[in-house]
Amino acid sequence: MTKTALHRELRELAPKLEMIPADRRMFEYKLGTSRLVREDDAASHIDVMMLIYDWESGEVLMGDHRKSGLWLVNGGHVEKEENLAEAVMRELEEEMGWKINQEKVGQPEFLTVCAIEANGYDCRRHYDIWFLIPVEKGELKIDEEKMRTEFKEWGWFDMGTARKLKTSNNHFRVFDYLEKKLKEG
Question: The domain that contains 65 carries what CATH number?
Answer without folding.
Answer: 3.90.79.10
